[in-house]
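Dear all,

This email documents one entry for the complex benchmark we are building for the journal club exercise. For each entry we list the sequence lines for every component of the assembly. Then comes the predicted three-dimensional structure of the complex as a token string, followed by one or two observations. Please use this as the template for your own entries, and keep the labels exactly as they appear.
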Amino acid sequence: MSFLAALCLHLLHFLYSTSSTLFSFWQRHTRIPPLALTAARAKLPKHLAIILDILPDTQQTDILETVDRATEWCRTVGITQLTLYDRRGLLHSFNQQIREHVVQVYPLASDSGESDLEYPLTPPPSDYSISRPMSPENSVLADLDVSTIHVVSQSRPKQVKTRRNVVHKRRERETKPLVNPLTLYLVSPKSSKPAIASAARSFVKLCRVSGKAPNEFNLMPEQLQLLLEGEQGFPPPDLLITPPRASHTGAELPLELYGFPPWQMRLTEISRGKFDTCRADNVLGNANDQSLIDEVTFRRALDEYSGAEMRLGK
Amino acid sequence: MFSLFHQCVSWVRQKAQNALLAVLAAGPIPKHIAFVMDGNRRYARMNKKIVQQGHSDGFLALRRMLEVCLRLGVQCVSAYAFSIENFKREPAEVDALMNLAEEKLLELCQHGDLLDEYGVRLHIIGRKELLPESVQAVARKAEEMTQHNDRAILNLCMPYTSRDEMTTAVESTVRKALDSDDYSSAEITEKDIDAQMMTSLAKSPPLDILIRTSGVRRLSDFLLWQCCENTQLQFTSTYWPDFGLLEFVPVILDFQRKVWYQQVTARKLL
């Protein structure tokens, strides 16, 4: 009986996979293409987060190019905050290189003399940081492992050759004015649950210093919010783009958050890169492109967000 | 004659459902599934019913899905019944929801009913003190009635928000650390906080699947801590009262596909 059930289950999976593949094929050929990057949308996220599935052998140039592209698209459409996250923490380990790259692309003094870059506003990730007032008489220290880079260039970015399609990129940039400031957050798995544990350790230290009894310690969500979303943390994103993933058989795997910081996910709209643009090694990109994110996925996520309704419990 | 035909259809349907569940149970089965039961009001509007009827139909859907999960062998089901934010709704709707909770909680726990039949222990998760006194009393009684059941768990989250749960867990962890001389603050890890989560205190296994209905692609402050790692998120456009086995089967197939993939990956790493 169990053998028969197992056989039936495999048949069911086969039928499901076949119908999913056909549906995906049909969708690919009937789907309306997303609006252009600069098209007017009813609603735009202020803060966009992207989960990148960076493999351990990903080249540094690919990562820098991804940061470069995402930054450029956000500034073009008017998104003012961008969070980049990867589940292996590789993005964060390239923190210094990304900072240096951003300095190159958005230099302190541009050709027109209009550029300005605030760099760096936060210490390197290895530093113990944060000193936030929780109440007038005390302060809390916690290690949130978030790197913040402010890009406030008022002119077009300087060209930095990172990849082969530089000429194409230059042409693109020359036709689009980039004037919007952007704050870039580099977030790692340590900024997730470990950051909340770090906050708890900080509260214990603080209570011990001030001699508070256990029952005298009361915590409000607003206090934790102030700490995790404050200067050394990062604010909650309005929209999160997650990468599609394929199994060993090439079938699509279910949506996951890969350890993205839970506190900030409260009201975040979740968009997923379409499976038909998924590269075989599980990243947000397309088969002919080695970058970690493609513009179509970005534009499609903005279109989805534009149509989302927010009710906030009402 | 019509009644006989109806009975036959119902019998065939039941048998087909049982066979389908038996087939699904031949593969890996999730231990913990959570539902965000969204879309009751839109379902009511679409079907020209009053809002309260939409919520009543939503409760029937919960019963239906709970039974499917239990038959499948799922150990724990969590349902987002009422958010702390929902107190912002029209007083008439809040009152109707509280009355529904009061009426249905005891019904669900009664001898011979679903929770008794499947040995399910009920936990009300959230800030219970915010509920009206009468609902609190019923919630206490319902929990007591099922406290000896140990085959499965039902977490009814009301009134609940995940940020409130995380804050409470951090507060409890800090208090525990302050209370113990051996408990050095340097030793507090995410596991300590996890142990203080309301779902952990209710002995719930890690969350495998979170399903949200009605086309909304947000978590809306539900189980944020529990679902950020290795949890399958499933968003479906069906309104909650219409959610049934047809929508549920692909979710389980996706879960099985993921588990098999993880097994293959783990074997490759060995």
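Observations: Residues 108-138, 163-178, 277-290 of chain A have pLDDT under 50 and may be disordered. Helices of chain A lie at 2-30, 60-77, 90-93, 95-105, 166-175, 193-210, 221-228, 295-306.
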